[in-house]
Structure formats: structure tokens, C-alpha cells
Design brief:
Layout: H1 2-21, H2 29-63, E1 74-76, E2 80-86, E3 95-100, E4 103-116, E5 119-132, E6 143-147, E7 150-156
Antiparallel strand pairs: 1-2, 2-7, 3-4, 4-5, 6-7
Length: about 160
């Protein structure tokens, strides 16, 4: 009889521990319901924010579709080489373009300071890239320009 009682007690403890470990039983079900409802509210709020962001991005894409066309970053054409650098909204006047020692170098430093009722924000972006000029390029005729959101470098080949 004692053995049966002990076995039943042990089985009850093991089952309740397992059920609790797998989250099937909570001490205060009302507290768990309240917690879950709060999480649902937070998720709904986050979903609304994401939907707003998607709507904004779609409207921006509709205004300037050429900014969102993916182009190859390098092309070897018959008469020239093309290098494209995605600027992600940066302006051409923030770039430094230098040709020196058979190398084309592009660099950019952007600093942004913003103050509003939530506080003071400072951000800084730095970008630098260099390309070796191929031997068959006419260096005096290298040009650069903007092409949508890309900075384009054209290196004409020697004839």
C-alpha cells in the first residue's frame, strides 16, 4: 500500500513537472492571459508600423523608379569600362573624386546632426573606394557623372 501511494505521488510530481516545463500549465492563468494579450497589442503596433514603412517605400519607389533599378557595378564594354557606385541617397557634391598614380579614388564623409523633442541625434557615414586604372585606358578622358542613384565612372579604352 505504501509502495502504491509513493508511486502515485511520484507519478503526479513527474507529470505536473513535465506539464509545467512544456508550458502547458501556469500557476496564474489570468496573469498569463494578460501577458499574452499585451504581447498581441505590441505585435499589432509593430505590424502597423511596418505597414506604414512599406507604404512609404512604395510611394518613394513610385516617385523615382530609376533609383531602384539594380544595375551592374562593373561593365567591360567594347570602347570603355564602366564603374557604378550606389550612393544610397548621397549627393554628388559630397564625393571626392581623384585620379592619381594609375588609381581612381572616390571618398565621401557625411555628417548629420538633428535635434528634436526626443533628443539630439548625430550620425556619420564614411565611404571610400579605389580602382586601379587598366593599362589600356586613356586616363585623360576618364569622366564621372550621376546616373540615378549611381555615381558612374567611364574609362575610355585606348584605340
Amino acid at each position: 500500500m505504501k509502495k502504491l501511494l509513493f508511486t502515485s505521488l511520484l507519478a503526479t510530481i513527474l507529470v505536473s513537472t513535465s506539464v509545467q516545463a512544456f508550458g502547458l500549465f501556469h500557476g496564474d492563468i489570468n496573469q498569463q492571459i494578460e501577458y499574452d494579450q499585451q504581447r498581441i497589442k505590441e505585435y499589432k503596433k509593430a505590424i502597423k508600423q511596418l505597414e506604414k514603412e512599406i507604404k512609404y517605400l512604395k510611394s518613394e519607389k513610385a516617385k523615382n523608379p530609376e533609383l531602384y533599378v539594380k544595375k551592374p557595378l562593373f561593365e567591360d564594354l567594347k570602347d570603355k569600362y564602366l564603374y557604378r557606385i550606389k550612393l544610397n541617397g548621397a549627393k554628388m557634391d559630397t564625393l571626392n573624386f581623384v585620379i592619381k598614380d594609375n588609381t581612381v579614388s572616390i571618398s565621401m564623409n557625411i555628417k548629420n546632426e538633428q535635434k528634436d523633442k526626443q533628443g539630439y541625434f548625430f550620425s556619420s557615414r564614411h565611404f571610400a573606394r579605389s580602382f586601379t586604372i587598366p593599362a589600356n585606358v586613356n586616363q585623360e578622358k576618364i569622366t564621372n557623372r550621376m546616373d540615378g542613384d549611381y555615381f558612374l565612372i567611364e574609362m575610355p579604352k585606348k584605340k
